[in-house]
Design a protein that fits this description.
Blueprint lengths: L8 H13 L3 H14 L4 H14 L2 H14 L4 H13 L3 H14 L11 H21 L3 H14 L5 H12 L5
Helix pairs in contact: 1-2, 1-3, 2-3, 3-4, 4-5, 5-6, 7-8, 7-9, 8-9
Length: 177
């Protein structure tokens, strides 16, 4: 177990990220609950807890947390993207289009993974593979999700969240990278 100073919100967020990469969403959420209690204006903590809820399949709570994160920091494209994809899963297409359009406005990489810079392109393809895998998984398209998670596991740099998360998803699905 990782021990930390109980009054430090950032330490809770860091440990929660570690738990989330292990697929231990309950512990991640517990740490993020405490981080939010200690620092209720942390957009990052709300975003991370929203991701943990999404991984658990609790879409309503995930959307609520992504919305809180957006209220605190409205110019983070990835949070709009994440919430938009969840709205899409719920069939709330007007809200999905609004969020996905805002994500593209804030950061054009959400429109396409192509880039002339090879390193940037690799990073964007990695993210696209992983998040598309998440969407496929939520739509019960397991074979497609596995294919996309394998792409992310093989293409992503080994020090980014998407690499850890793709491997965790594959493990949870009983698959190998």
């Amino acid at each position: 177990m990782i021990r930390l100073a109980p009054e430090v919100a950032a330490a809770r967020q860091d440990r929660a990220q570690f738990y989330q990469m292990q697929g231990n969403y309950e512990r991640a959420i517990a740490d993020l609950n405490e981080a939010i209690r200690l620092d209720p204006k942390s957009a990052v903590a709300y975003n991370n807890r929203g991701s943990a809820y999404a991984f658990q399949g609790d879409i309503d709570r995930a959307i609520a947390d992504f919305s809180a994160s957006i209220r605190l920091e409205p110019k983070v494209a990835a949070v709009h993207y994440n919430r938009g994809k969840l709205y899409q899963l719920q069939g709330k297409n007007d809200r999905a289009i609004a969020d996905l359009s805002e994500a593209i406005r804030l950061d054009p990489k959400f429109a396409a993974a192509d880039d002339a810079d090879a390193k940037k392109k690799k990073s964007q393809v990695c993210e696209a593979s992983f998040y598309s895998g998440e969407l496929a998984l939520r739509l019960n398209a397991k074979d497609e999700a596995v294919r996309l998670f394998r792409l992310a596991a093989s293409d992503c740099a080994k020090d980014v969240n998407e690499w850890f998360a793709a491997n965790a998803e594959l493990k949870a699905l009983g698959e190998t990278p």
